[in-house]
Amino acid sequence: MADLPALVGLLADDALGREREAPGLPLTQAYLDAFAAIERDPNQLLAVAEHDGRLVGMLQLSFIPGLSHRGAWRGQIESVRVAAGQRGAGLGQRMIEWAVEQCRARGCSIVQLTTDKSRADAHRFYARLGFRATHEGFKLRL
Fold this sequence. Notes:
Order of helices and strands: HHHEEHEHEH
Strand order of the largest sheet: 1-2-3-4
Helix content: 25-40%
Structural class: alpha+beta
Radius of gyration: 15 Å
Oligomer: single chain
Shape: globular
């Protein structure tokens, strides 16, 4: 829980994040509640990368059971962030490769992720790692 402000700061460390996150202290209760729910759920994993004692990367990994694809489990990678000063040094690739291995170890048949349509660099990054844009995603804000 002590790292939560730094995690929210990472989420806000780009153009899209600045618009949708609220990294100011004190953090809103919704962040605290979400963190607690992630901690309690064995199918949720919040992973961080540190460098010189400072958080420089994060991702959330969800393990989702499903009936489709013959009852396949899916690994859903979300909230991938690398601190601005660390981008381009291979950290993101190591984080995604680690997440894929976690999915494999948990018996997942599919690893999926979403990324905003405006993130062209991220699209190229994920394609380079073997991900394919096979589906069109839709979201409904509530």
